[in-house]
Amino acid sequence: MVPLIIAIVVVVIIVAAIWMTYNSLVxxxxxxxxxWSDITVQLKYRADLIPxxxxxxxxxxxxxxxxxxEIAKARSATMNAKTVNGAAEAERSMxxxxxxxxxxxxxxxxxxxxxxxxxxQQQLQDVEDKIQAARRFYNAGAxxxxxxIKMFPANFINNLVGHFKTRDYFEVPDGEREKIxxxxxxxxx
Length: 189
Prior knowledge:
Order of helices and strands: HHHHHHH
Mean pLDDT: 84
Low-confidence stretches: none
């Protein structure tokens, strides 16, 4: 009878370990999904805010058509990005376009003094800060999930169910990293 009880206890421990490990993978996967959702919400909010900034600047700088087209392309790429790498690429284009837009704004003292433009610029800065925070949260979750998937016994259990995949980090090439991680700087003197 004792060997039967020991066998039952061992089976219960194994089942409990598999159950707990699988549930922890589900939890981490959902945390990463939530973090990705936070990034996309902030990117959409920024994309919705940008036409207001562009319209304000266009009123003062009608001859800067190329910059406005660049922003429209970057905004479209941001809205259509479906993967982490696609979003990172769109982010690089958006940062470049916004930098150009704010450089144009610097050339127009009346625009820099415009209250509407100042409020839009502040909202955009706030969104940039939120995007950066959401990106850090996503990458932390992706790291935790990726590590768990690769470690024993989670890797064994994941191979049995074949359900969870490692996630890409939201990052940019080293040469572009400094530009992306820092929102465009605009000085109103």
